[in-house]
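Dear support,

I submitted the protein below through the web form. The confirmation email said the job was done, but the results page showed an empty box. After a refresh the structure appeared. I'm attaching both so you can tell me whether what I see now is the final result or a partial one.
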Amino acid sequence: MNVRYGSSVEPVYTDGRDIDPDVGTLLGEGASQEASGSSDEHIKQFAKPWNKLPQPEADDPSYYDRPMLNEPIWEWAIPLYYYVGGITGASLVLAAAAQAIDGEKFERLIDRCHWIALAGASLSAGLLIWDLGRPWRFFNMLRVFRPTSPMNVGAWILTGAAGNGSLALFFRRFDGGFRQAGNMFTMAAGVFGMGLSTYTGVLVANSAIPLWQESRRVLPVLFGSSAVASVGALFELFEAEKPERRITKLFGTVGQVAELAAAVAMEKQTSVVPRVGKPLKSGLSGFLWKSAAVLTAGSFLIGLLPNKTRKQRIAAGILGNLGSMVLRFTVQHAGVVSSRDARASFHLQRASNSTHKA
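What the results page shows now:
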């Protein structure tokens, strides 16, 4: 038992959870957790005393320069999931497009897309489970379908993409009716793939963090186009015949152009309120943001070279995928920086109020 307010007339004896058994019982997944130390020491980590009372600025007031929002608690596994899930979804879209054009002609390309999707879906599920801590927490999200929750919808999209992609990979190896069923699963997986490559942008934007909130219209487009670009760059690493090379090159180039355009749109949109767009222009997040654009642009320019050598294609593929991955980590880190800004939320609210009044 810990003693709180030990020097007072009536000290409080507590186990750190402050639950009176005569009033209520603590149940649930966290009921068996125990504090690793004194609750007072834990509180001191977050409630650091002020040696000097902050003086508010009359022309730019805030709440004592304290952040208004809690920062995101997602670790490295989640932005990596954005990248892997994007590749998974976009590869299924590419497979469906190749099937619609000529399934027999692009047989090897479709199989490659399905194998990439199978590996990506397995890794994506592993990353989500690692972040959640326990496997059944992921399966618990599938007990209900909640359209208002991007996270719940995303769990269903990942399940649908993985399931249809796996069935397509299996049934396409047979002839007759089984192959026709495989073709149908290929098209269904492509529909789920479109959702998988874009829903993470909706998930990120569905928050009160100023940077993410102001870019909510462009984030799904940015993540989706980046997923398309990364798949096109990934196929630069493989040997392929000219017809396959043309379709994957066109697919990737369209994604790269759209990604660069969406990045410019996001920076412009968030900079309407300068304080909100600051993380994309300064500090580590600003450096990463520019680095992602340079990597993607470098891959795009190498891709324009005529008669590219094997080494040039590999360079384009590596740069394209690095650009896509860095972009996801940048959006995550910039959101953390934005949540820590004590004035970004206030500036955004004042700008919104001024717009409504006008």
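Response: this is the final, complete result; the empty box was a page-load delay. Residues 211-325 form one domain.
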